[in-house]
Amino acid sequence: MSDYCGTQADQAPEAPAAVPADGPRAECVLCRKPTEYPESHKGITLCPVCEWQEAQRTACSG
User: Fold this and answer.
1) How confident is the model at residue 23, as a pLDDT?
2) Count of the separate structural domains present in the chain
3) Residue 39, SS3?
4) How many helices (H) and strands (E) would you count in the chain?
5) 30 belongs to a structural domain
6) Model pTM?
């Protein structure tokens, strides 16, 4: 069994590959990739990868 913190915690999730049938998605404010949010979503939108990285920074800032 591999060490959870040394292998899986360092890997960010993959961004969605295709635009879903329910409409276009908003762009990530950091990398401009599609997010899980619709274009009509208000506020800051982050893709899954940037959202994960932001959570890591927030967790480490104590």
Assistant:
1) 80
2) 1
3) coil
4) 2, 2
5) yes
6) 0.57
Residue 14 lies in a domain: no
Domain assignment of residue 3, yes or no: no
- The answer to whether residue 16 is domain-embedded is no
b/e for 14-39, b at 16 or more Cβ within 10 A? Answer: ebeeeeeeeeebbbbeeeeebbebee
The H-or-E segment that residue 1 falls in is: none
Q: Which H or E element spans position 56?
A: helix 48-60
Look up the domain containing 52 and give its range.
25-62
Q: What tens digit of pLDDT does each residue of 13-58 get? A: 665 555 566 688 999 999 999 998 999 888 999 999 999 999 999 8
Burial of 53 (0-12, 13-18, 19+ CB in 10 A): middle
Judge contact between 22 and 58, C-beta under 8 A. no
